[in-house]
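Team,

Forwarding the record for the chain on the shared tracking sheet. I've put the sequence and predicted structure together so nobody has to dig through attachments.
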Amino acid sequence: MRTFRRVTAEVVALVVAGVVFLIPFSFMLLTAVKDSVQAAELDFSWPTSWPIVANIAEVVSARDYVLLRAYLNTTVLTVGSVAITVVFAAMAAFVLQRRAGRIGALANFLVLSGLIIPPAIVPTIWLLQALGLFKTMPGLILVEVAFGLSFAVLLFRAFIAGIPRELDEAAMIDGCTGLSLFFRVIFPLLRPVTITVILTMSVTVFNDFVNPLYFLPGDENATVQVTLYNFQSQYSTEWNLLFMDIVLITIPPLLAFVFFNRKIVAGMTAGAVKG
């Protein structure tokens, strides 16, 4: 009886997942490869023609190849944000885990506050303007780092809790200083959770729409999600081009999830067990 209930629950879950995710995605793909006349019908019919290359070329060349510039901007933003977050989150988590005390408790409270308190857009813009970083890529990278740092610190700290302190003492006896201890001994052991942080934050930054819209306005600084918003207003009636643009933007995070979902789950699970 329990086996029957479990199988029934799994079947229901698969059906719900198919309805919620697979059907809309299939509709998007079918519409993206149709011509403009057939795409205007917005149905599940099989394409009578396959102008895939023409649709891709028109989407890429739209608005003076803004999509290519957006991919470049998004790549710079993602790589810079993730690299800074990984290094600083791992270092902060190591210190917080190894040095408990009043200052550590205050730091933990601030880390949790970063997850709970919603970001304030206007004060952040004022701060960036005061620093001369508003409407600049370095400023947006710092914003993404600030918003993603708390989650990364929690993951790293949970994983570091499972690393014995005796390893630190042995390295210090061998002459390691604080930085060399971290980068030569501790950081290589954080590979599973580092992969998890890299993948989860890469997808988050790549799909971010609000922060680039507020903190990096302008077509020359556009990211892929912002171009999708502008593309929708320009091609609101040409559904095949609109859905093709969505497909081109969806491909990178989708591939990252398909190929690395096990590593993401493994990193989070290892941190949870060792914490």
